[in-house]
Design brief:
The protein is α+β, with helices and mostly antiparallel strands. 18% of the residues lie in helices and 33% in strands. The strands form two sheets. Strands 1, 2, 3, 4, 5, 6, 10 and 11 form an eight-stranded mixed beta sheet that branches. It has a three-stranded antiparallel beta sheet with strand order 7-8-9. It contains three helices and eleven strands; from the N terminus they run αββββββαβββαββ. A hairpin with a 2-residue loop joins strand 8 and strand 9. The protein has a domain of 137 residues.
Length: 197
């Protein structure tokens, strides 16, 4: 069982690196991109990982636009990082989608009210999967998702019939043993800024 967890964690880490590469870039864009920042999942080829981009994220049940400016955090990893949860799509319109990635959504912690909907964070990537207990009990509904490895993962879709569009819902489900947030390691630290809906 430990070897299986290690193999799964290793595959998840590799997938997280791929997701972070799609979801980030450097702050300056070439003149061809002057018309506006693009969705990270639409950037392919040599521009991938080299231009700023955005993806939609959930925070307290509301979708926001998060802009990414780098593919890797430079310097010592901070002690406290906010979670960047990756889970099964919560609506019929996933926030991340093929052909460049697998169908998925993102969830971050609540946006501070005194910041008026704009804040910047260093984030640690986590995949949110249904636990064995969650699947067997029927409390966690998985979406079996291939991340490029030989075995699909049970990305969490709902728990007890409720969507997982807030960090508090995910963390309560984890506390109850119904989902498992899989830490994707130091290579999955990214920087993002939320700026309105």
């Amino acid at each position: 069982m430990t070897a299986l967890r290690f193999r799964t964690a290793t595959r998840l880490f590799a997938a997280a690196i791929a997701v972070a590469g799609i979801a980030s870039g450097v702050a300056s864009a070439p003149p061809a991109e002057a018309a506006g920042i693009r969705n990270c999942v639409d950037i392919t080829g040599p521009q991938s990982g080299r231009v700023g981009c955005y993806e939609l994220v959930w925070a307290d049940g509301v979708q926001y636009r998060m802009t990414f400016s780098n593919t890797s955090f430079q310097g010592a990893t901070p002690n406290e990082l906010n979670p960047f949860y990756v889970l099964a799509p919560q609506t019929n319109a996933p926030q991340g989608y093929p052909p460049n990635t697998f169908p998925h959504d993102h969830v971050v912690r609540a946006i501070p009210a005194d910041n008026h909907g704009t804040y910047s964070v260093r984030l640690q990537g986590y995949f949110v999967v249904c636990s064995g207990q969650g699947i067997v009990s029927g409390a966690c509904v998985p979406t079996w998702t291939s991340l490029g490895g030989p075995d699909p993962l049970p990305l969490a879709t709902t728990v007890n019939g409720q969507p997982l569009t807030s960090a508090s819902a995910i963390e309560a489900a984890a506390e109850a043993g119904l989902v498992v947030p899989l830490n994707l390691g130091p290579g999955a630290v990214i920087v993002g800024t939320i700026s309105g809906r």
